[in-house]
User: Fold this.
Amino acid sequence: MQKQAGLIVNPIAGMGGKVGLKGTDGPRILEQAIRIGATPEAPQRAARALERLAGLRHDIHFLTCPGDMGENELASAGFEYTVLGPPTTGETTAEDTERAARRMREEGVDLLLFVGGDGTARNIYNAVGDRLPVLGVPAGVKMHSAVFGTTPGNAGELAELFLRGKATGTREAEVMDIDEDAFRGQRLSARLYGYLRVPFERRLVQSVKAGSTGGEETAVRAIALHVVGNMEPDRAYIIGPGTTTREIMRVLGLPNTLLGVDVVLNKTLLARDVNEGRLLEAIEGRPARIVVTIIGGQGYLFGRGNQQISDRVIERVGKENIIVVATRAKLFALNGEPMLVDTGNERVNKMLSGYVNVITGIKEKIVYKVCS
Assistant:
């Protein structure tokens, strides 16, 4: 019996990441992102998810939205589909997403796939609640919610397993979002909006982002002292976002962009709150290292909240020049699950996979697995 699935793509999701804008909520920020060179990320991420569904091409009928909201990707992938509603004109809106999701709920789709970030997840929750299975293909900047596949390909794999009846379990997964204006002002204000019913396979879906735990100040300080003590002259250090990396900047006595990316050279600030383009300029013609920590609870090294450190930047720097820092408590909280990467480039994801040294203190390290 042919299955019926829904596909909704938020075509502007993730556009603010590489250009350092921490999201694209609101027309003013979207215009700014486009003006400084942002390009769409969601269409190619939708395509990667659909590639994993190719084996079901003749067994699924999709309901989707016009043009960039799903139709284009399904047509390119060769799936059967029905377009809901008239063609959209101009920029798509949250109302377009919610209207389409309500229609798919009414049509009784077996699974609703959406491509976007936390804001899109909120729109889907507003429209369908927990009344049908939903799965997110990660394409946003923040993605604190637990409703996404760990990568676009893994989202497609889980969708295939679910639609074939090989992954029948679902769980209630948190829909979280943050205030982007506060985020840009270096304040993290997160809120739980509700729960979506999501197909579940532990290795294929991400966890909700966990906040920092108290009582780790000494461990974080030791990590920072180790990194600073081993900094080399005339080498640029790209300092990723997070509370662990913030301590490195404090030890150096430099201002820090808690939720952005800074560059240090000879223990002075070379560039602050940079985007991908500025990063590439900063490391042109000089050796560099990347200092990055994991997202608590989720375990991501790259691809969540630090998209400025893009696949191009990572390739330029090289895997051997990536410094991973985390407290033992943060690693143990992963419960043995690997750290994750989702750069948007499968070649770079594979390059980063394997085992890495994680600095956990002064002259202390743990070897830990990384997967894509």
